[in-house]
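Deliverable D4.2, example record:
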Amino acid sequence: MSPTLNPIDATHDLNLRSWVESANGHTQFPIQNLPLGVFRSDSGPRIGVAIGDEVLDLPAALQAGLLMQLDAATAQAMTAPVLNTWMALPAAQRRALRLQLSALLAAETPEGRLAGAQRALILKPQAACEMLLPTDVGDFSDYYAGIHHATNAGKFFRPDSPLLPNYKHVPVAYHGRASSLRPSGTVLHRPTGQVRQDTPDGPVPVFQPSARLDYELELAIWVGPGNALAQSIPVSEAAGHVAGFGLLNDWSARDIQAWEYQPLGPFQGKNFLSSLSPWVVTSDALAPFRAPAMARGAGDPQPLPYLLDAQDQADGGLRVELEVFLSTRNMREQGLAPHRLSRGNSTYMWWTPAQMVTHHTVGGCNLRPGDLIGSGTISAPESTGFGCLLEITEGGKTAVLLPNGESRTFLQDGDELVMRGFCQREGFAPIGVGECRGLIQG
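Output generated by the structure prediction step:
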C-alpha cells in the first residue's frame, strides 16, 4: 500500500485558533481550511486565501516579508494572476505553503500583534472582493461518477436496463466547454436551441428557448502538475495530481439535450454555462474527511488493474455533505428563506478522483495544471439527496412544492439556485467548500 499523500497534521488541530477573529468558529473558512482563490479588490487579479470573513492578500503578505520561508518557485506562484502555476507545483510544495500559511495566521504568532494599518495592507473583507475563476482553464472534462444519478437518469430512457453494460467497468465522461465556465454569481441567460416536438407524422425539431432548464450538483476537481503527452499517470500517483476541490453546477437544458445527445452525447444542452465555486479547497485541507472508495457489491466487477490501488480504495473518496437551495423571485420579494431541494454526500461516487485522473490519461491524453474535471451529478440513494430536478421531479412528472405555494418541475426565469458543501467529523473543525450560486434570466 502506497503511503498516505495528505496526512493529518498540526494544521488540522481542532483547537487551532487565528488572530483573524472572524475565522474562529467560522462554518466555512476557519484556520483549518485555508482555501486559495483569485480575487479583485482595488487592483488587478491577485491570489488570496479565505480566512473567516477576510481574504489574505498573498502578494501583499509576501511584500510585507511575512512569508519569507517560502521557496522561490512557490513565492513566484503566489504573485501570478491565476492559480495554474501553484497547481503545477509538486504536492510536497503545495503542502509546505499550507503549513506556512497556518503558522502565519495562527493566534500564537508575532503576526497576531500586527498594527491595524499593517493588517489592512494584507487583509481584505470578502464582501469587498470580486471573486474570479481560480485558474485559466485549458480543458474541462465531466465524468458520470454518481451511480445513483446514472441509474435514475437511465430509467427515463431505458427502464429495463438503466445502466449500460460499460458503466461499472469504465469511468464515463464527456469533454465540456472551458470557454463558458464562470464563477459563482454569474447570471445564467436561458439557452435557445432545437428541441423535439412530437407530431402525428413523427418527431420534428422546433427552435425555441429551453423549457426544461436544470442544474447538476457536482464536485469540481482541480488538476495539479499533470502529465506529458503519451505518459499516463498511475493510479497510485494520481492523488498527487489533484490540487484541490470545489463545487460545480453543470447547468443542463434537458429538452435540447434529449434531442441532440444521440449518437455523440452532450453539446448545446450543456455548453452555454457551467458555474464554479471560486475557492479551491486543497487536498491537504480535506485530509480528515477522506473516505473509502464506494463499496462494490458481491456481483459487481472489480476495477481493471490500472484503476486499482489499495491506498486509493482505502481513502480515495471524500465525505463532503452537499446541499442545494432554490429561491424564486416571489420568495425573495416575500422575504422567505431559500427552500432546500436536496442534501446528499460525495461518498456516492462509483469512481474516485484518482481513478478519474488516471483514466483520463491512460490513452496518452495530457492533463495540464489548472484543468478542470467534474465528478458528474452526485445523488444519494434517497430522493431527499437527488442531485438535479430531472431526478427530483421524475422527468417533470412530479412538481416540487415551495413554501409560498409555487411549484417547479424545471427552473424558471428569476429563480436563484445555490449549492453549498461542507465537511464535518468528530474531533476536527468543520470546514466548507464554499458556495456556487446562479440567477436565471430569460
